[in-house]
Amino acid sequence: MHKAIIIGTGPAGLTAAIYLARANMNPLIIEGPEPGGQLTTTTEVENFPGFPEGIMGPDLMANMRKQAERFGAEFRTGWVNSVDTSKRPFTLQVEGQGELQAEALIISTGASAKYLGIANERENVGRGVSTCATCDGFFFRGKKIIVVGGGDSAMEEANFLTRFASEVVLVHRRAEMRASKIMQDRARENSKITWALDRTPLEVVANDMAVTGLKVRNNQTGEEEVIETNGIFVAIGHTPNTKFLGGQLETDETGYLIVKPGTSETNIPGIFACGDVQDNKYRQAITAAGSGCMAALDCEKFIEGHAVHDWSQSV
Ligand code: NAP
C-alpha cells in the first residue's frame, strides 16, 4: 500500500515526484516505456528557465529524476495495464509489478505526437524530422521547412516557423483543410508560406547527415515528386495516453483528461492529472512541470484529509 503513485515520468510526473518526496510522502513512480517522456526525443532544450546555455532534453530529465530520488522517491519500471478507480485505495495492475494500491494517484502519462508512419521518418527524428516547432524551430534559421498537416496545429506551426525559416511549405494530403477559417486565413496571409495541397507524404529523403527532402505523391496527377527541405515538422495531432484508464475518468472529445479549472483534480476524488495528458493547448515542459507541482500539492492535501489507511502506525 502506498500513499501516492505517480504514473509517468515526463516533466509533470517528475516534478510531482520531487514535491511529494520532499513532503515525506514516499511516492512510488511508475516509469513506462519512454522514461523521461517526449523531452528525451529532442536534442537541445533552450527555453527551460535556469539553463542559460540550454540543456539536452535527456540530461534535463535525468537531472529531474535524480532530484526526486535524492528526496526518497521510489521508481519502478512497468506498464500499467489497468486501474480500478471504483473504490479507495485505488488498485493498479502493473506488468512486471503485479497489483499495487494507493490512497491517491497522479496521472502524468503525457501525450504522444502522431507520426506519418512513412519510410525514413523515425530514423531522422532529431536530424531534421520534428514534431515540435517551439522546441526545434530555432535550429532552422534561414532554411526551407516543410510542415505536414491540415489542422489548426499545422497552421499554427507553419506561422510560427516563418519567424525562422526562409520559406515554409505546407504539405497536406487533401485539397481541403480541417483547420479553422481564422487559422487558415492567417496562414494564407503569410507570404513566407507556400502550399503543396493534395500531396500524400511517401518518404523522408535524407543523406548520412540530415534530411534533404520529402517525397510526396501529387494526388491530382498521381506523379511522385521530392520537395527539397532541411526540416520536416509533422503536425498531425497528438494522442493523450489514457487507454489504461478504460474510460473511467472524464475526458474531452479528443481524449484529454478534464481537470477542474485552476486545479489538478479529475472527476474522481483522489486522482489528479498533470502535464500533456490534460493539456491540449500549451504542451511545454515548463507548463507540464508547473502542473506537476500543482498535482503534488493537491494530492498531499487530499491524503491529509482523506486517508483510508492509518499511516500513523506505519514505519
Ligand atoms: P487535427 O485537427 O486532428 O488535424 C490533424 C491533421 O493532420 C488533419 O489535417 C489530418 O488530415 C492530418 N493527418 C492526420 N493523420 C495524417 C497522416 N497519417 N498523414 C497525413 N496527414 C495526416 O489535429 P490538430 O491540428 O493537432 O488539432 C487538434 C485540436 O487542437 C483541434 O481541435 C484544434 O482545433 C486544436 N488546436 C487549436 C489551436 C488554436 O486554436 N490555437 C492550435 C492547435 C490545435 P485530414 O484532414 O485529411 O484528416
Task: Please give the structural blueprint.
Layout: E1 2-7, H1 11-22, E2 28-31, E3 44-45, E4 55-56, H2 57-70, E5 74-77, E6 80-84, E7 90-94, E8 98-107, E9 111-113, E10 129-130, H3 133-136, E11 144-148, H4 152-161, E12 167-171, H5 181-188, E13 193-196, E14 199-206, E15 211-218, E16 224-228, E17 231-234, E18 238-240, E19 271-273, H6 285-306
Parallel strand pairs: 1-2, 1-8, 2-5, 8-19, 10-17, 11-12, 11-17, 12-13
Antiparallel strand pairs: 3-4, 6-7, 7-8, 9-18, 14-15, 15-16
Helix pairs in contact: 1-2, 1-6, 4-5
The chain binds NADP nicotinamide-adenine-dinucleotide phosphate.
Briefly, what CATH class of the largest domain?
Alpha Beta
Mean pLDDT over the residues: 94
CA radius of gyration:
21 Å
- The gross shape turns out to be elongated
Quick one: CATH superfamily of the largest domain? FAD/NAD(P)-binding domain
Class of secondary structure makeup: alpha/beta
Number of domains: 2
Strand/helix succession = EHEEEHEEEEEEHEHEHEEEEEEEH
From the structure above, extract its key features:
seven-stranded mixed beta sheet, binds NADP nicotinamide-adenine-dinucleotide phosphate, 6 helices, five-stranded parallel beta sheet, FAD/NAD(P)-binding domain, alpha/beta, 2 domains, 315 residues, 19 strands
What does this structure look like?
- The chain has 315 residues and is α/β, with parallel strands linked by helices.
- Helices cover 22% and strands 28% of the residues.
- A hairpin with a 3-residue loop joins β7 and β8 (98-107).
- α1 (11-22) crosses α6 (285-306).
- It is elongated and about 75 Å long.
- It starts with a strand and ends in a 9-residue tail after the last helix.
- The relative contact order is 0.18.
- The model has no long low-confidence stretch (mean pLDDT 94).
- The structure holds NADP nicotinamide-adenine-dinucleotide phosphate.
- Residues 116, 149-154, 156, 173-174, 178, 236-237, 254, 280 line the site of NADP nicotinamide-adenine-dinucleotide phosphate.
- Residues 3-292 form the FAD/NAD(P)-binding domain.
- It comes from Paenibacillus lignilyticus.
